[in-house]
Specification:
310 residues; mainly alpha
């Protein structure tokens, strides 16, 4: 108990909340350029998705194992899911790892990192709508409605007129929107099942299981993953670590602070995704349509999580 009291005192400090939230958002935002760089170093350049599924599967298997190892170390005992946990783990694994990332990884091969990070942020707005439909105590408000309208407007702006990488495409923009919806649906599932299962155990288990399914799916479709040098090892290690680290840090903030207070920082996710994609991929992130879309989406995320009581 003494340890928990100390942790609560630490993780509720304003400076700590700000620092950890920014780090977590930066890690998640960096996934967009990191995945596209991973495609290059692993030489995944053809149009078939099988190699990408194996690539994603290895990443999430490693990330899930890292979360489970950390959770066991933090509890000072080996923690494994019980039979009663399996329904939630299986459902979440199918929706938020397998289904979401089948669409996500195919989509990102057909989108720039900048545009992908903006469209993927629609998951925040889908989550608000699904939560209002699923939970009586999570109704739509004026703030949430305005925020969602701004978010959808951002995606429309991305695709107005010509170019920004060929306009709207089903396997690009469309698949990313489906991935965002799966992310939001996974959030609803997590809220239902996390009542009886420790969040770290639920997340680590579903990531590892989903990773195995993606590997098997990719291999069955003829995919493979070759390690061609140190850059491949570093790329995969970073992708696995960013998922494990970002979740662990975020979970600590959520555990000791009001969810609305922490979710407010979600507007930084697309900001980091856009900026880091511009830096590491050399993409044009100052295009006026992308800037306007980013402002709409980020402002919308801030507004839907806004609370008058702070």
């Amino acid at each position: 108990m003494d340890k928990e009291v100390k942790e609560r005192a630490f993780y509720t400090k304003k400076a700590v909340i700000l620092m950890i939230a920014v780090i977590a958002m930066a890690l998640w935002g960096s996934a967009f350029p990191a995945i596209k760089i991973g495609y290059k170093v692993f030489r995944i350049t053809d149009g078939t998705p099988a190699d990408r599924f194996v690539f994603a599967g290895v990443r999430f298997l490693l990330a899930g194992l890292l979360v489970l190892i950390y959770n066991s170390a933090a509890n000072r005992r080996f923690v494994l899911p019980q039979k009663s946990d399996m329904r939630g783990i299986l459902l979440l694994s199918f929706v938020q790892t397998v289904l979401e990332y089948v669409f996500f990884y195919v989509s990102l091969a057909n989108l720039s990192g900048v545009k992908g990070s903006i469209i993927n942020s629609m998951g925040n707005f889908f989550a608000v709508i699904l939560a209002a439909l699923a939970f009586k105590d999570d109704r739509m408000t004026v703030y949430k409605t305005i925020g969602c309208i701004l978010g959808f407007a951002g995606v429309v702006i991305c695709n107005l007129g010509g170019d920004i990488n060929t306009g709207f495409t089903l396997t690009g923009d469309g698949f990313m929107l489906i991935a965002a919806f799966c992310f939001a649906l996974g959030g609803v599932i997590t809220k239902v099942y996390a009542k009886n299962t420790e969040p770290a155990l639920l997340t680590g288990s579903q990531l590892a299981l989903g990773g195995i399914v993606l590997i098997v799916l990719g291999l069955a479709l003829g995919g493979r993953l070759g390690f061609y040098g140190l850059d491949c090892v570093l790329s995969m290690a970073y992708l696995a670590l960013l998922s494990a680290a970002a979740f662990t840090l975020w979970a600590k903030l959520i555990k000791y602070n009001p969810v609305g207070k922490i979710s407010l920082f979600g507007f930084l996710n697309p900001v980091f995704g856009v900026i880091l994609s511009g830096i590491f991929l050399g993409e044009d992130f100052l295009d006026i349509k992308l800037v306007l879309a980013l402002v709409c989406v980020s402002t919308g995320i801030y507004i839907v999580n806004y609370r008058k009581d702070g």
